Amino acid sequence: MIELIENCISKFGEGYVEMRGHSRKVFSVTVKDGQVERITRGLNRGVCSRILIDGSWGFSSTTIINKQNLLRLLKDADSLAKSSKPVKKRSVKIAPVKPHIDKYETSMKRDPRKEELEILVEDVLEADNEAHGYSKNVVSTSISLSVIDDELYFVNSEGARIRQRIVRCFGGASVIAKSNGKIASAYESIGGQTGLEIFEETPIREAALEAAKRAVRIAPKRVVPGGYYNVVLENRIVGLLAHEAVGHTAEADLVYGGSFLSNKVGRKIASEMITLVDDGLLPSGFGTMKYDDEGTPTGRTVIIDKGVVKGFMHSRETASQFGVTPTGNARAWSFEFDPIIRMRNTYIEHGDWTLEELIEDVKEGYFLRGGGGGQADFNGEFMFTIQEAVKIENGELKESYRGAAISGNAFEVLNKFKGVGKDFAMRVGICGKEQPNYVGIGGPSLNTELLVGGS
Amino acid sequence: MIGLIEAAEYAVKECERLGADEAEGFTQKQRTVEIVLERGEIQNERTKTQQGIGIRVIKDKKLGFAFASTLNQQVVQETCRDAFKLAGVSPENPDWVSLPPPRKIPPVPEGLYDDELASLTPDEVLGMVIGGYEAVKGVDPRVSIDDGKLSIFSTEVAISNSHRISLEGKGTAASFFLVCVAKEGGETSSFAYEYEVSRTLRGFSTEKVGELAAKKALMSLGARRVEPFRGEVLLSPDVAAEVLFGPVVSSVNADNVQRGRSLWADMIGENVSNRNLTVSDDGLLPYGLGSSPFDAEGVPSQKTLLIDNGILRNFLYDSYTANKADTESTGNAARNSYSSLPSISISNLLIEPGTKSFDDLVSEIDRGIIINRFSGSVRVESGEFSGVAKQASYVENGEVKFPLKETMISGNAFDSLRKIVEIGRDRRATMTSVYTPPILVKDINIVSK
Questions:
Q1: Distance, in angstroms, between B264 CA and closest chain A CA?
Q2: Under-50 pLDDT residues of chain A
Q3: Residues B322-334, buried b or exposed e (16+ Cβ, 10 A)?
Q4: In chain B, what residues touch A416 (CB-CB under 8 Å)?
Q5: Residues 6 or more apart from A272 whose CB is under 8 A from it?
Q6: CA-based nearest distance B44→chain A, Å
Q7: Is A255 strand, coil or helix?
Q8: Backbone torsions φ then ψ of A52, nearest 5 degrees
Q9: What is the pLDDT at residue A90?
Q10: Can you state the percent helix, strand and coil of chain A, rounding each to 5?
Q11: Given an 8 Å threshold on Cβ–Cβ distance, is A40 in contact with B66?
Q12: What is the value of ipTM here, to two decimals?
């Protein structure tokens, strides 16, 4: 595919031109209640072109890949760029990036292309069995494993020519439990940018068992009482805070729109315990890629260093606007989307408290466990869902409650950190910002204050 | 390259040749024009063409599925082989009966395809966005656009299966949303969301969206907190669709019923809500967002009464769950695209409107809040909802007092369905194909600092 793309791009003269080719192989198995609900294999392939002429972008994509159609694609993008020019307020410029000619492939011990993926059916059935076997109160399960094998080609008119193969293996277990006519659900996930070895290292049956235990535990319980509390966030959900509360407001397109971080570079906005990073090269990170979808090399981008705002996440376009170097944060979900500023692997660095110490420090509050979805507005208002809240009284864990949504304002929460744990953990996530994308989220358990939207 | 129905029929024959007991080919072609607004600027304009095939194969009650984004003979052949191979490794499903047989398909409802919409040029689409954009600016200089998107879709599908179902259909849709924010003296309002979604250009106005979004943003300036309390909440159609009807949709889904995931599993004929609530699913609604003469398995669409004056009457079935329950499919199989298997979904969920205007509903509130946007979670199985009340206002003695900030609501949809005070008059199509008026419910927990 890359040769065809290169051949087409060389025939197109005007402006900055880039073309991306994308082939996504999908394998997934879903088991529900002992039955294989679906076992799927699929292939999506397509090409897009993006053209910058006279300060205006045009974009077009197609799944019909032949020379004639790709040349038409370029022409479409070109005419879109030209026709939308008069209504665009701002003339776009892009910061320089050295054109790279390179290859990258996910580091893997077990390459899914070299194995029969059908064997994964057994793992999922076993996990389902484990979850149902845990308790008679488990009424329904849905457990899946997926392997997404992406090949990405990037070619631009500046001479870049990059091939990347990115493999992601992941899974999820959702379990429903009943108790006296009440119903509760719990969810756990596994995964990373790795080969099939992740399914041995963190077996889906363990996630399924954990989800089963939680669902059974909270099924007879009430929803956590609502209010503003001192809370300890479990390491596995701290990434949601890093991503939703802070990460989005450090995306340069949102900063440009006036996010709450916009005039705070160099200023101390959080406790010295807090260092927050978006890392494009984190080993096995779900959002890791050597080059972003504009051909910019990625790296470790420090957003907050010991409480002080250091910088933002950039595309070539925003780097030019801000007069800085692109950070490699321009990512596209597929060939059907233009790259926009996205996080890669966003995390808070570890501190030196043990989980026990974090909990002991709370006089009255909750230990929040198990993550769900979240949202953020660029003014710093964020929310995310937690599955379970365990009451803390005088530093001791008491009874469990069902979870709820929690919310806060980033600049308030950042000042309320009391302790940061040493138990760092990364998780996988899918973030939606106009288009979805795979991201890594992580951090250690920590202690702060938040509004819990309970009963 | 081959046509949609030819590709679907070819796939069925090819799978049968490989030894399948039954097979189904579903093909889809979609053209999209999208314009994305970000930070008040036209960020991008894109055109997409996509097509593909999803193939379902059954062999000895074992199911396999494969898809591909290319419709030539060789790729379809390979995809058939993949699906057939997967069926081979899948364990037998003793509940499998068969793919649906052909049934009489009703006439195509009016207003599902708009030639004018399908033939819009990117320039014309751009003009529509600018209309919305100018409308925002025309309302007040304090308002700006955070983001927005106009999407124009034109879709064709074809379905073929081993029982001689062979159907083709087409449809169009347009959707536009804007998120606006108002700024004054260092204060940023809560983010105001407004939208329009339609199958045709009839009544589709981007200007109206712009004007409403801007006004909503302005109305939320000067926000204050209230002390936590328990009171009445007036849910806008969007919030009602998500918070109240999300759990309804999940509970009437026959798959959830059969798996013990629905609290309504044994409640047909019983009271599940306030007796003023009547809800049906109508796949044949003229101009309906989820309308089609047949569903994603080729089963005829129909109107199904779900809740009749508070009494639960029916569940929604696809052919698999219908076979399992020894009943007929209600034509509620849906697919996100060719790359997914069919699963049960509402077509258009219709909530019977009441008689009171929005202002009448407000005037009935002793102490409560109005909520226009909900940023939170709804656990559809248990009915628990919890989240931030955005674009919310505080109401006392029937009067709107002030906009709210940092306020959350929490409750249980199944309780709230019984605690409906009043159903409004003005029904609206929401982005999720739920057609509902605003709904006033009582006894909701309002949480704040």
A1: 11
A2: none
A3: bbeeeeebbbbbb
A4: none
A5: A306, A307
A6: 7
A7: helix
A8: -115, 110
A9: 84
A10: 25, 45, 35
A11: yes
A12: 0.90
Question: Residue B121's Cα: distance from chain center in Å?
Answer: 27
Q: Assign residue B111 a region (left: φ > 0; alpha: ψ between -120 and 50; beta: otherwise).
A: left
Residue B288 pLDDT exceeds 90: yes
Tokens of A142: 């849905």
> Inter-chain contact B261–A176, Cβ cutoff 8 Å?
yes
Chain A closest CA to B87's CA: distance in Å?
A: 8
Chain A residue with Cα closest to B382:
A183
Chosen from A30, A40, A450 to mutate, greatest number of chain B CBs within 10 A: A40
Question: What is the average pLDDT value for chain B, to the nearest integer?
Answer: 95
Q: Which residues of B touch A45 (CB under 8 A)?
A: 69-70
The 10s digit of each residue's pLDDT in A99-126 is 999 999 999 999 999 999 999 999 999 9
AA letter at A213: K
pLDDT of B1 above 70? no
B109 CA: distance to closest CA in chain A (Å): 31
How many A-B residue pairs are in contact by the CB < 8 A criterion? 216
Q: Do A38 and B69 touch (CB under 8 A)?
A: no
Chain A CB contacts of B69 under 8 Å are: 43-46, 63
Residues 204-233 of chain A with CB under 8 A from chain B are: 223, 226-228
Q: What are phi and psi of A130, to 5 degrees?
A: -60, -45
> What pTM did the predictor assign?
0.94
Segment (H or E) for A229: strand A227-233
Q: What is the 3-state secondary structure (H, E, C) of chain B?
A: CCCHHHHHHHHHHHHHHHCCCEEEEEEEEEEEEEEEEECCEEEEEEEEEEEEEEEEEEECCEEEEEEECCCCHHHHHHHHHHHHHHHHHCCCCCCCCCCCCCCCCCCCCCCCCCHHHHCCCHHHHHHHHHHHHHHHHHHCCCEEEEEEEEEEEEEEEEEEECCCCEEEEEEEEEEEEEEEEEEECCEECCCEEEEEEECCCCCCCHHHHHHHHHHHHHHCCCCECCCCEEEEEEECHHHHHHHHHHHHHHHCEHHHHHCCCCCCCCCCCCECCCCCCCEEEECCCCCCCCCCCECCCCCECCEEEEEECCEECCCECCHHHHHHCCCCCCCCEECCCCCCCCEECCCCEEECCCCECHHHHHHCCCEEEEEEEEEEEECCCCCEEEEEEEEEEEEECCEEEEEECCEEEEEEHHHHHHCEEEEECCCEECCCCEEECCEEEEEEEEEEC
Scanning the structure block, which residue is given the tokens 């022409």? A75
B86 vs A contacts (CB less than 8 Å): 39-41, 118
In sequence order, the β-bridge partners of residue A151 are: A23, A165
Has residue B48 got a pLDDT over 90?
Answer: no
